[in-house]
Amino acid sequence: MTGDDPLEKRTEPRTDGGAAGEGPAIPRADGGVVDDVALDPWGSSSVSDYRKLFEEFGIEEFDEILEQVPNPHYLMRRGVIFGHRDYRPVARALQNGDPAAVLSGFMPTGDPHIGHKLVFDEIIWHQQQGADAYALIADLEANSARGMSWAEIDEHARNYLLSLLALGFDPEEGELYRQSTNREVQDLAFDLGAEANFSEFQAIYGFDGETDVSHMQSVVTQMADILYPQLEEPKPTVIPVGPDQDPHVRLARDLAERMRFFKVSEAYASFELEPVERALVTEFYERLEPEEFDDDTLRCVHVAEALEETPLSELGVAADVLTSVLTKLNEAGMEPIRPRTRFFDRRATDAAFDALIDAIEGEKRVYESHIDAFEIDREEAEELAREVEVDNGGYGFQPPSSIYHRFMTGLTGGKMSSSIPASHISLLDDPEDGYDKVKSATTGGRETAEEQRELGGKADECPVYELYAYLLAGDDDEFAKRVYDECVGGERLCGDCKEQAAQLMKEFLEDHQEKREEVAALLEQADIELESPRRRQ
Ligand code: TRP
Ligand code: SF4
User: What is the best residue among 409, 464, 481, 482 to mutate for testing ligand 2's pocket, by most ligand atoms within 8 Å of CB?
Assistant: First the structure.
């Protein structure tokens, strides 16, 4: 599958029609399987098993946070949006009416299709929930990574934008741009590029000595896209994309962190602890009841002694972790153990470092490249560090969050692919063609009508059911559920079911295309260049 194509996916379906959150059980529009799991934004990414994305890549399950999302979109309720990275801060901001942003980008390599519609809808929904919304045309990437000419890019870009507006994006509230003409994005890309190097790109994207420099530049440009909504002020930002874009999201989260002036951590004494080591010290610190400690001050050596008296098997850590902690504690010797919040100077200017010293309230200790604060907790410290950074000319980025949607099954079975017209529905398809494509789609139906009545259809393996769940049922969960229940209960037969879906698809396309015409004027007024001044063809 190609990285720019959110349609493509598995060849083999899997079943887990479960409930999402509270309320009536909604049949899940479940994605399935393709060969193996490899997340490659331009290559042949494939998702064999969505569970692996959780286990191997650390993507979290969306269901677990569904309840924290105000007024969740049907794609969230139906499990089409299946995963996320760090979405909680965004959900919280939407809930509280605090600043938040949503941004996604589109490579204008072909016509917008029903897979792109998922992302359009996600952007629009976030905008309606109060987030600042951004949609960009990844024209530099299309030119450098896909070799598209600028004339083709312009034509496709226009089509993406018209569909986005037709589906409800408000260009007055939100921002549209193309990578090539956004100077701020280019400047930010340059800054971010100073924090990344070729070996890293090699490791993440498999770049080698033959990779075009422009292609690498398009990567830093995407990093800048992702952080762009935070230029004015840091805020929780979500990037809705297919899971093939996850390597970009991880790198952007990393770079956001590397740009920070200070790193906040917790410590017990002058030395540093790794997270596992810290957990061990925390446990013993609490166990020794520092308030009532008989020697009036709890010191590093006391914790070391207590650790030495405890058999390793009871500590629940590896031997080398224990050795390392003991070495640190013993070296610190009589130094008192006291929990503190530590601000590390990563790349702060002297002025920013001094400003932070002044800003920290209560007892503090200043060292060469860190400051320990004894009276503020971790969360306050994070906030303070960001504030001082922003006041002193830094970006103060929050790590961007992401949500991931499932790839749709092709109408002909197998992958949905832009290069196989019958496998997908373009938003520009003639409504009659859309009707016909649905009518000739493969289904999860049985050999004969009798068999279907007896055993029920396999909605979980049916591309037509997916159309209902991802698009045709819209916000109407009851309807989606009815189709599912009737199918698996044997009351629904594929002929009628497809007729209904085909009719709905035709109406959707008619309606969408009419709206595209209505918003044409809106697009002309929008603040985005529709014609590229670039020349390389
Ligand atoms: N790389 C994305 C794609 O292949 C397009 C893109 C560019 C993008 N910049 C972005 C996506 C920022 C999300 C956020 O489709
Ligand atoms: Fe698919 Fe509908 Fe047939 Fe069920 S009845 S298998 S949902 S086409």
Answer: 464
